[in-house]
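Reviewer 2 asked us to include a model.

Predict the structure of this chain.
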Amino acid sequence: MQSTAERANRLLGFLETDPANPRLLTDAAEAAMADRRYGVVRDLVARYAEVVDPPAPLVNLGGLAAMHEGRFDDALAAFSRCVKADPDQPTPRYNLAWALSAKGEWADAAALLDDSVTTSTPGAAVLKVRALHQLGQMDDALAWGAEFLTRHPGEPALFGALSAAAMDAENPPLAAEYAQRAGEAPEGLATLGLLRLDAGERRQAEQAFDRALRTNPDCARALLGKGLARLADGDGAAAAAELDRVATLYGTHLGSWIAAGWAHFIAGDLDRARQRFETAARIDGAFAEAHGALAVIDLFQERVEDARRRAQVAMRLDRASFAGVLATSLLMDSRGETETAERLRSAALNTPVGASGQTIAQMAARLAANRR
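Predicted model (structure tokens):
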């Protein structure tokens, strides 16, 4: 039986003698796509367009290749053209929503995923749940997802997406239920790992994260979990590298920026810690943990009045703020005396804070796992 690579090579060879044959160009592009040679697909679609206006299926193929190469604007243009050519077809609408989501345009993506699209394509149902989740519409994400399960009852990725939404809705029992039904879906495994990490089952948590990353090396939640596990171990340098990557991938995930900041703090890099906390404060100026964390950094860098002001802001926003309580405690303990940064940092690292008595690493892990 001929392999996909052999078929693609054979068709590309035919094109050498008949380079402008539209049928050959189409067949070769399809074969190259099957062989995951996305750059070749891009070139073949462009060559076809030089001969004649390409039909919608070939335009769609070019869009898929662009998605795989990370050329999201090109994909968006291709899929928009396909939807314009046939607005009622569900597959082009799903592909367009996929491209929009890749660019972070979640509201427009969700609007495209109506009943006809989500019923015909399981992936569209998964994307709808993710879009609503990203928009912060947790109740809608969970309600739509429960409805989708009646249409796609055996879809592991749907259970995985729902487990992530339930986790961020702060419903651990529901998150665990969905995660356990998600099989090897990376999102479900990542949720399971985060739940086990929160329960102190670090070895089992890391096993779940590793399984998720074997399937999808870019699974942000599994990468987050790996970073949090290292943070919980007190390995700030390793955790900081992981959590910086996750924070960048998530973009506006507040907990990731805060966790990354505490990881740099644990590693002794106060300047990088400050940068991460400032990013969280820019994303949400009413997030008490960001102000409290910045107060801690101010205190370590002997900016006592700035620390006192920020700590007051944090406590005004949330009396239970971990970082706010920590900063207030350190300010009280210092009694206005100048202490070395290292002595102060050591005290902060080893001081259980708040009613739960958690340390910086434990609280940062909890914040990163739940706060969006």
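The chain has a mean pLDDT of 87. Residues 257 and 276 are 5 Å apart (CA to CA). We have added this to the supplementary material.
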